[in-house]
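Marked as duplicate of an earlier ticket. Keeping the data here for the record.
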Amino acid sequence: MNVTRKNTDDLNAVLTVSIYKSHFSHKIETLLKEYQKKADLPGFRQGEVPMGIIEKKYRQPLLLEEVNKKIQEELNKYMQAEKLDLLGNPIPVVVENRDWDADKFEFEFEIGLAPTFDIDLEGLGEITQYKIIADDQMLNEQLVRMQKQYGKMSANETFEKGNDVTGTFRNEAKEIENPATLSLDVFKDAATEDLFVGKKVGDVVTLNTKGLFADDHQLMEYLKVSHDDVHGLDIDVDFTIEEINATEPAELNQELFDKLFGEGNVSSVEEVKAKIKEDAEKQFEGQSNQQFLNDVTEGLLHNTKFDLPAEFLKKWIQTVGEKQLTPEEAEVEYARSENGLRYQLIESKVMSSNNLQMNFEELKAYAAEMIKMQMAQFGQMDPSAADIDGIVARVLGNQEEVKRLSDQVMSEKMLALYKSKVKSTVKELTYQEFVAASYGE
């Protein structure tokens, strides 16, 4: 048995596996004798079925099974020895009317080879690193929300200015049915609140979505429509009022400060704002980092040029699903997934070129930190090492969690690499400015 390769071009090749019947004929003869001993057919005693009948029934299936085993063994050995970097899996070349009585069989497999290319992180040009700041408007709005959250709430029968409402947005044509609680200062036009004045529970207020909020992206939150739909969305939505609540804001005093941040940690409004600013900007850092990763990814996809064995991949795509695709369906699927495949290759090259690796101890440490942060959110500020280790063991026993956490660890390593090697400029902006910049608006 041997395997030979004939390159069609730089990205395509054909592997030929040669198999001789003599290499496994003895095994087949042994198996046929075992089958004869155990065979139990009508008209014959067990073990006395004629070998001719056994051969007619079992020789061909046994031959095919052994041939398939040998093919896979030889292909795997060859690909490992040659260190072939394949895209997809080998595709067998179909041969009609193969002579299974021959002494030698040859099987051909088409393969698609991964392209060779270089990564130039320093040649991407300058990419913006956003630093999102919490401005005074955001801090004041958050302070008001805190006062309302800890204020005294009472139900109202009739809406008055300054009240909050809970209800459901509906639009049948757009299949919108989304519950929401609103403080009506969220609307862009202060006059919108006037539409609610005097309304009662059960009443319906019709609103037009065009210019309803200062930022159209808020339609994604309140109506649960997609980003592609929000821009220029001009439809009427019905808001059915289900609750009306008046809130007497909590006083900005030490009692409130202690509830918010723990006893004695904050003692003035300015310190509250400083704490809000610190927490908000820490959360914003994750979003700005993700945007930086996205922008570097886009730059790499644009700047890193290489060909793919497209026709092979389309043929392979036809065979990998539960249902075999038509050539037309495979063409569509390839177009949909091509960029993802290109970035997988680029990402793999970045990691190998820069020796980005992750070991199990790193994964355990990352999982432990994540668990500590989550427990702190629920007031468990000082969990024992034994508690943490137990939870980590359970989490890492779940393969889906292992993959998710592994992706996060590697993403952080990629981010650190990009920040050190990609030319960048830091730009400070508010959250609303960041949203606009991120979506290119």
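See parent ticket for discussion. Residues 269-303 form the longest helix (35 residues).
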